[in-house]
Amino acid sequence: MRNYPHPLIAREGWPFLAGAVLIALILSWLAPWWLAALAWLVVVFILQFFRDPAREIPAQPNAVLCPADGRVIKVEEAHDPYLDRNSLKISVFMNVFNVHSQRSPLDGKVEKVWYDPGRFLNAAVDKASTENERNALHLTTANGQAVTCVQVAGLVARRILCYVKAGDTLTRGQRYGFIRFGSRVDVYLPVSARACVTIGQKVRATETVLAELH
Question: How large is the average pLDDT for residues 179-183?
Fold first, then answer.
């Protein structure tokens, strides 16, 4: 496991957690017990939502790792709208109980970043890929293979965070972004890639091999 220089509770969640704890403490002092208990349940929910654990990183050199926790909802040949090519598209849907940090699927260079403010449809529906708020990275490997990794906001998600820019270099498993409160990630691969997951499969960021490049 490579060194993971991030706290177990993601920094993106600290303001939410601090506010929720403060409210829970006040209600514990002034409000009925059931209202205080509800507030502490909210604190527990925020803690689990913003957890950001380190993960084992597979060493397989041609592996494309899953960039997010969740469930696979698409494995299909599709058009990559960013690189204008036919591709193998794999989509992972994240519910509010999944870890929501995004991690690089491979070792590569960020060639370009696209951001579209978009809409906030249910992230599980097909048109979310092209109509919702989204942020896409064009990554290239050392041997020139291109992968597009797209953060897509959902019905409740209202903030996509991306911490890299064109010219940056990412290592597999490196944390590069975060989406708040339910969303999806689309990965567009060369058509020669072989999918290693199936629709409905539960996957974990970094630890699950999404596909193999050939």
Answer: 74
Residues known to be catalytic: 183
The alpha-carbon radius of gyration of the chain (Å, integer) is: 18
How far is residue 64's CA from residue 193's CA, in Å, rounded to a whole number? Answer: 9
Point out the least confidently predicted range of 12-16, 152-156, 176-180, 206-210: 152-156
CA distance 100 to 82: 23
pLDDT tens column, 20-66: 999 999 999 998 999 999 999 999 999 988 899 889 999 888 999 99
Category of 205 on φ-ψ map: left (φ > 0), alpha (ψ -120 to 50) or beta: beta
Cβ-based neighbours of 162, under 8 Å, separated by 6 or more: 113, 115, 135, 137, 151, 176, 177
Angstrom distances, CA of residue 212 to CA of 95, 128, 176, 194: 26, 26, 21, 5
Instruction: Round to whole Å and give the CA distance between 193 and 141.
Output: 13
Most confident of 96-105, 111-120, 165-174: 165-174
The whole-angstrom separation of Cα 108 and Cα 163 is 15
Closest CA to 143 of 88, 106, 188: 106
